[in-house]
Specification:
globular; 5 strands; alpha/beta; 33% helix; two-stranded antiparallel sheet; 5 helices
């Protein structure tokens, strides 16, 4: 189960997309083509607004992210019995991934005893440009 780390809602609106979510969706599709059962569960949310991490040092980033994420209602059930893989678009100090792991461990039974994995993805040099403001879905409305 790929779990994208959420971007701030204002950043998503400004970009027109959520990079970590797009990466997770693309990775899940590629894994499925290779015969691996993979799904995306956007179960993390931001509990409060956080400062832009650019220009912050490691300690400031940890403080900025501390307690900022939570598992949305119903999210723990989606992750029951699976090992989540956290997906983020940029990893610098790891403060955001650490906060995402903390939120999962605190709210999803069974995650505390197992390890959490982080997927680090490098995008193309020219970046990702959304084709439209809409997420693509299949005929059943699934992403």
């Amino acid at each position: 189960m790929l779990v994208p780390v959420p971007s701030a809602p204002a950043r998503v609106r400004a970009r027109g997309h959520d990079p970590a979510r797009r990466i997770a969706l693309a990775a899940a599709a590629r894994l499925r083509r290779g015969g691996v059962r993979a799904r995306v569960a956007s179960v993390l949310g931001q509990r409060r607004q956080v400062a832009d991490q650019g220009g912050l040092g490691a300690l400031e980033r940890r403080r900025n992210m501390a307690g900022a994420l939570y598992v949305r209602p119903g999210g723990a059930g989606l992750l029951a019995g699976v090992q989540p893989v956290l997906v983020d678009d940029v990893v610098t100090t790891g403060a955001t991934l650490a906060e995402a792991a903390r939120a999962l461990r605190a709210q999803v039974p069974g995650v505390a005893g197992g390890g959490l994995f982080a997927a680090v993805v490098a995008g193309p040099a020219d970046g990702f440009e959304p084709r439209s403001g809409k997420t693509r879905t299949d005929q059943y409305g699934r992403e």
